[in-house]
Write a sequence for this structure.
């Protein structure tokens, strides 16, 4: 089970679309689309954790501002990189990972913000130390594994769009009201029409136009809440350790270190999914640089009382939908995030975009992630091997935590921490099932039969040979036909 990967020099002089530098105006528009897609997820973790540990509303706004600044810097590290040792140089947006949300709340309630910061600091160092060897897992990601994981990512994040369509949270009294469903459907129809009938720049910013029109319609039909905008200060500079100094406790450190293993696996999955979309496959060196960027962002974020960072899978779908593959577009979104973090009124203004409007756009964007995985699975050979079973197990087990969230509620807390993420369950299932079912060695048909010698597991050689013969036959026939037509023309000219 060997995988081939591109190992090109990722410089702006490359002819690949991922290294294309667009005009500043276009990069700003496309970058704003990425910000609008990931903003709700980016602020969710500091919002939930800050509320859980008892921070005041104004403190939570400041915490969100610090988070946006670090998100922007981490995104720049990932897309632009530093030298040849840091950053995967793929269009990936960085943000606080949901995988750490439950452990962070538990640690915060028990040890406060100081306990969180100390655990995050050590977890960042742990990621930096583990990145060089955990990235070697890339050789366990053939197309059947990678396609299954990318498809699972698209399907797993679809409930996020469903929650947005309903209004935000299923615990709301009016969740799924007619107005929310109608505005989500209207936004979706607008995006589809612009994407279908538009061209050029208009087609590429279909999501942004849909979000603006949907929000405008919502303003006239219902109302938009600008209270947070008026209550926010104009400028807020990040201040280190303003909510507590790091405290180091063994249990929180072990808990977040184990979470970072999950985060690293999820981040590698997102890097490979993005690599497939932009035409630059993520090899082990690329994965290592990407994980180092995540580890450094997590470590530095701890000095601002922030949380673990990872690649956001939601933005992968936007790349597939718009076809804009330039990493410098996502770098522009990193700059926008930094500005939003510094000018908190701008950050609060983006919060005004209604969740149902975001949900209507999310249906298409997240669905495109699954489409990217399905395309990869379409290139997999399913004959004379167990690839079909690998796909079935990955999707079946990976979707269990998504479809039945309470399935593992009776297990110990440490087990629930790993099993709550369908992407993590599916990734581990894909790797292990491929090793067991397809294997790397030899296959014995009958151990008791002396004549039955070990045979290599081949990828349908008879079918491949027959295909080659058929192609050669067609080529010869075409050459003969062209020769006859040429002879006929010469006779007519005579």
């Amino acid at each position: 089970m060997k995988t081939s990967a591109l190992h090109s020099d990722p410089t702006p002089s490359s002819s690949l679309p991922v290294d294309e530098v667009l005009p500043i105006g276009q990069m700003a528009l496309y970058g704003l689309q990425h910000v609008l897609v990931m903003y709700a997820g980016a602020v969710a973790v500091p919002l939930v954790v800050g509320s859980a540990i008892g921070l005041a509303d104004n403190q939570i706004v400041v915490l969100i501002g610090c988070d946006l600044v670090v998100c922007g810097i981490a995104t720049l590290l990932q897309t632009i990189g530093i030298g040849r040792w840091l950053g995967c140089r793929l269009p990936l947006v960085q943000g606080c990972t949901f995988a750490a949300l439950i452990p962070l709340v538990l640690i915060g309630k028990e040890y406060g913000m100081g306990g969180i910061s100390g655990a995050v600091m050590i977890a960042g160092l742990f990621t930096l130390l583990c990145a060089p060897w955990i990235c070697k897992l890339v050789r366990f990601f053939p197309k059947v594994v990678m396609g299954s994981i990318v498809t699972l990512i698209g399907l797993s994040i679809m409930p996020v769009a469903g929650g947005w369509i309903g209004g935000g949270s299923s615990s709301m009294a009016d969740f799924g009201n007619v107005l929310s469903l109608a505005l989500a459907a209207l936004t979706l129809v607008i995006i589809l029409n612009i994407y279908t009938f538009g061209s050029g720049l208009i087609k590429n910013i279909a999501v942004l136009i849909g979000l603006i029109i949907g929000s405008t319609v919502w303003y006239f039909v219902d109302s938009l809440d600008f209270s947070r905008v008026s209550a926010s200060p104009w400028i807020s500079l990040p201040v280190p350790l303003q909510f507590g100094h790091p405290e180091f406790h063994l249990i929180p450190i072990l808990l977040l270190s184990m979470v970072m293993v999950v985060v690293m696996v999820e981040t590698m999955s997102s890097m490979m999914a993005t690599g497939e979309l932009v035409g630059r496959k993520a090899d082990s060196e690329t994965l290592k640089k990407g994980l180092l960027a995540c580890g450094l962002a997590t470590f530095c974020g701890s000095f601002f009382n922030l949380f673990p960072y990872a690649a956001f899978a939601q933005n992968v779908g936007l790349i597939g939908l718009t076809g804009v593959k330039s990493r410098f577009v996502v770098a522009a979104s990193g700059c926008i995030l930094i500005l939003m973090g510094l000018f908190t009124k701008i950050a609060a203004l983006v919060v005004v975009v209604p969740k149902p409007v975001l949900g209507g756009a999310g249906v298409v964007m997240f669905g495109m992630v699954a489409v990217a995985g399905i395309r990869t699975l379409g290139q997999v050979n399913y004959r004379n091997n167990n690839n079909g079973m690998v796909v079935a197990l990955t999707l079946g087990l990976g979707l269990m935590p998504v479809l039945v969230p309470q399935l593992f509620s009776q297990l110990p807390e440490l087990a629930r921490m790993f099993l709550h993420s369908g992407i993590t369950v599916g990734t581990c299932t894909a790797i292990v099932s491929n090793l067991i079912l397809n294997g790397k060695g030899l296959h014995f048909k009958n151990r008791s039969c002396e004549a039955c010698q070990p045979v290599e597991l081949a990828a349908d050689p008879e079918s491949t040979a027959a295909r080659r013969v058929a192609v050669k036959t067609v080529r010869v026939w075409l050459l003969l036909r062209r020769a006859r037509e040429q002879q006929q023309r010469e006779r007519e000219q005579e």
Notes: The longest strand covers residues 94-96.
